[in-house]
């Protein structure tokens, strides 16, 4: 049963993931008298991307210096650590290693090191001996140690954010799916949901996997950008073999593709996760291979940008699909990093689906992106490291609203 849906509000936030909740917290923190309503179609907060990721507090080493991602990752990571300290949310800044498995990857490792230094991170080059000291079961010709990377309970952070918003007199209404939006006289926006309508002066769309559709309801111009769902499949490492990974072990990323490759990460709850891969899902919320939704699948087929993307990356995509259906192939990718890991060490775990914005040209949108019109802010693209950067994104959106001429 959802909370009671108010008839009016200063601000409606669509989406109770970590970005939507961070926006609501930032707005109510600036002005505790503001009435904010967060609506979400699910019956719990963090039901999708925010609760189905690897729980990594990202350093920002991969991102183009001075890009919004790089700046937001740094500020957001620091803010998230303070927030976790203040609200008793589990986290640990434990560091990670990025491993070059052979000499062909050393040039890319050096470029990544230079980028990390330019982004203000504590990056240390490791030789074989140094790698063995940091991660005794990892194997490679060299590695980087990135001190600022950590692990965090993002679901716990979402619950803490929701609690703050409600303590300030605003509302989190769950089980309320947005079905339409319309603008009334004087610019007020009526948000229709499955539990009734709420009229607000401002709306922020943090719809994640559905964000482009929510934007279309509001007749917002997102320049033809569409969300493509990429499923990331995970395994849990058997607890008796969790010693194979002390903290986080990553490969050198393929610069042709915006995903990091399968890796090993320890969680704040003590387990070790392996993954994810990146497979186009045939449903926006397609957490299993058999999940297919006609509308979602048709949009993929009909999207010219998707066809251009498939032509460009078909080899990479085929490899990801092969690892999806062949556990031994997935294992082989892991064994490049940790040779001692075995197939029997891996147990299937819940998958996640990443919302990735795609241009008509077939280019994946790399940076965070927003689209505004009077009274409305759309978070068009907020892939990783959005969870890490959520508090900074929330602050940024609150400022956009304040500069819109009628602050909430």
Task: Give an overview of the whole structure.
The structure is a single chain. By secondary structure, the protein is of the alpha+beta class. It is built from 10 helices and 20 strands. It has helices spanning 18-30, 68-87, 106-118, 128-134, 154-167, 211-217, 294-302, 304-325, 327-335, 390-402; strands spanning 8-14, 36-40, 56-57, 91-92, 96-100, 123-126, 142-146, 150-152, 171-174, 178-183, 189-193, 196-205, 226-237, 248-251, 263-266, 272-275, 279-280, 346-358, 369-373, 376-381. The strands form 3 sheets. Strands 5, 6, 7, 13, 14, 15, 16, 17 and 18 form a 9-stranded mixed sheet that branches. Strands 1, 2, 9, 10, 11, 12, 19 and 20 form an 8-stranded mixed sheet that branches. Strand 10 (178-183) and strand 11 (189-193) form a beta hairpin. Helix 8 packs across helix 9 (327-335). The chain is globular, with a radius of gyration of 21 Å.
What is this structure's SSE topology?
Blueprint lengths: L7 E7 L3 H13 L5 E5 L15 E2 L10 H20 L3 E2 L3 E5 L5 H13 L4 E4 L1 H7 L7 E5 L3 E3 L1 H14 L3 E4 L3 E6 L5 E5 L2 E10 L5 H7 L8 E12 L10 E4 L11 E4 L5 E4 L3 E2 L13 H9 L1 H22 L1 H9 L10 E13 L10 E5 L2 E6 L8 H13 L6
Parallel strand pairs: 1-2, 1-12, 2-9, 5-14, 12-20
Antiparallel strand pairs: 3-8, 4-8, 5-7, 6-7, 10-11, 11-12, 13-16, 13-17, 13-18, 14-15, 15-16, 19-20
